[in-house]
Write a structure and sequence with these properties.
By secondary structure, the chain is of the alpha+beta class. The chain folds into 2 domains: 167 residues, no CATH class; 92 residues, 3-Layer(aba) Sandwich (Glutaredoxin), CATH 3.40.30.10. Strand 1, helix 7 and strand 2 form a beta-alpha-beta unit. Helix 3 packs antiparallel against helix 4 and helix 4 packs antiparallel against helix 5. The longest helix has 36 residues. 28% of the residues are buried.
């Protein structure tokens, strides 16, 4: 029984270590730098290899493979050797990324790896328990539950990293060309419903046979839910006169107006983010006019 619990603990340590390595991208980058690995591509490759090896060894140890325990022991010794080299280079106190962003390069980390190496090396020597089928089933369910918890942590960590990457990438703004559409600052006689605070109005120019326009209809409906924003859609055929008067180059196209019809922003858009960028630009320019 003790050997089964020990294998489960050893597997959980490796699986948890793999999940923790995915938690904080910045700390992970600093950890790789402490060991002399520079460059984002090299760091991502090294991370993928480490996580894959730790997960594979964790699963193999849980299954009772002695060779996996010996491989884990050698890996821990290798990590300990890398820590000693990093300490000798004056990297003590820097993140090591062994068990999450709080792990640090230092002699306690070296001692920890030596203890783990001894633990994994001793696992195959533990006596095998003689359990009934029910006992083995209970142990299997326990190991499965622990693995699912670790997998959940890893998935959440990956989701957090993806979210951080999306926030780090600046959204592409709508294409605003000075010679296309109505001139900025000009007054255009386009009618909109009156709004409670008279904040801003948005004219959206669409075409009936435009696939991109059809795909953007939910985005336009979403923007139109704003109770303080007047939104009107102008069709290329039904509202051809407005298209010609404003010099709209094509669809989908959007123009943001002051309540008095002053053009604040314009541009071709292909996504909700780009449509919102027209509104954001209009808000910024409207604020500059008010401050002036």
């Amino acid at each position: 029984m003790h050997s089964v619990l020990a294998r489960g603990a050893g597997a959980l340590v490796l699986i948890a270590s793999a999940g923790m390595k995915l938690r904080d991208p910045r700390a992970r980058s600093e950890a790789f730098a402490a060991f002399g690995l520079e460059g984002e591509r090299l760091q991502r490759t090294a991370l993928g290899v480490l996580v894959a090896v730790e997960l594979a060894l964790g699963g193999a140890i849980a299954a009772g493979l002695a060779v996996a325990s010996y491989a884990a022991a050698l890996m821990m010794l290798g990590f300990g050797g890398e820590l000693v080299v990093a300490i000798s280079r004056g990297r003590a106190g820097e993140p090591c990324g062994c068990f999450g962003p709080r792990s640090r390069v230092g002699w306690p980390a070296v001692l920890r790896n030596i203890v783990l190496a001894a633990f994994y090396a001793a696992l195959p020597s533990l006596p095998e328990p003689h359990l009934s089928a029910t006992g083995w089933l209970a142990i299997g369910l326990g190991v499965t539950f622990a693995a699912l918890c670790a997998l959940g942590v890893a998935v959440l960590a990956l989701a957090r990293e993806v979210g951080a990457l999306r926030l780090a990438v600046a959204p592409q703004a709508a294409l605003e060309i000075e010679d296309e559409g109505p001139p900025l600052g000009s007054h255009v006689p386009v009618t909109f419903d009156a709004q409670p605070d008279g904040r801003m109005s948005l004219a959206v120019f669409m075409s009936e046979n435009c696939p991109v326009c059809s795909a953007l209809e939910p985005s336009i409906a979403f923007v139109a839910r704003d109770p303080f924003l007047a939104v009107r859609v102008f069709d290329e055929r039904r509202d051809a006169e407005v298209w010609r008067a404003l010099g709209v180059p094509g669809s989908p196209y959007a123009v943001a107006f002051e309540p008095d019809g002053t053009v604040l922003a314009k541009g071709t858009f292909n996504s909700l983010g780009q449509l919102e960028s027209v509104l954001a630009t209009g808000e910024r320019r409207r604020g500059a006019l008010v401050d002036a």
